[in-house]
Specification:
alpha/beta, four-stranded mixed sheet, 7 helices, 17 strands
Amino acid sequence: MADAAGPLIIIGGHEDKEDQRVILKAVAERLNGGRLVIATVASHTREGYFESYVSAFGAIGLTDLVELYVADRSQEEIASAVALLDGAAGLFFTGGDQLRLSSLIGRTAVETRIQALHAAGGVIAGTSAGASAMSETMLVKGPSKGSYRIGELHMAPGLGLLGGVIIDQHFAERGRFGRLLGAVAHNPRLLGVGVDENTALVVEGDRFDVVGSGAAYVVDGGGVSHVNIAEAKPEQALSLFDVRMHVLSSGDSFDLSARRPEGGRHEAGSRPPKG
């Protein structure tokens, strides 16, 4: 990621909108008073999503908000969405269906404009489905609360804002350890990152910091010595040796280049130290 690129704020879902609003404050702080576009594209119905963020962000003083929604890939819908991004300081993807999000704006002028906004220093945040869509390879569907079985995982191209990782959300709450291990078994070059609810990764440069009430789980398959993906029969349980996992909580950091965690060195919700 280039140094000039803006921060990515990757939220595991169900972020606090009524109490301390730690994650939403982290978004607002990095906008420096600029306009935030709320993209509700991942939702099959628009009702309630935008209004809930108007209320939540308004309570912390951020009121310059506009909604971006597209119903299809028609030229009119795409052109209207691109125009909404003019002058924006950031974009916030709400939850819903990540495949809907990527299929509606992927390889369109909207995706190009979002990538340009990020490259120019704009803030890009996403919660739940909006978090999963940030990566180049996107986890779309797979079983929860069980061991991963060969053939149960569905992946697709994401928006490509963060390379080298695959993201899962609602992580501990929905018991998604098995499917993240399966995703890493299929893609050992990628770091698997699971994010709990009301928890976020604040990615700036080549590192991320954890904020919020839960944890982030980083699964590194770079040292795996055995995996049975290629030879196993469909529905056979995954076999995976020598996989490494890190668990990070609020205030902890992770160096994406070195693939190493760092202990808590700053207060939750604050900017990380420079240098």
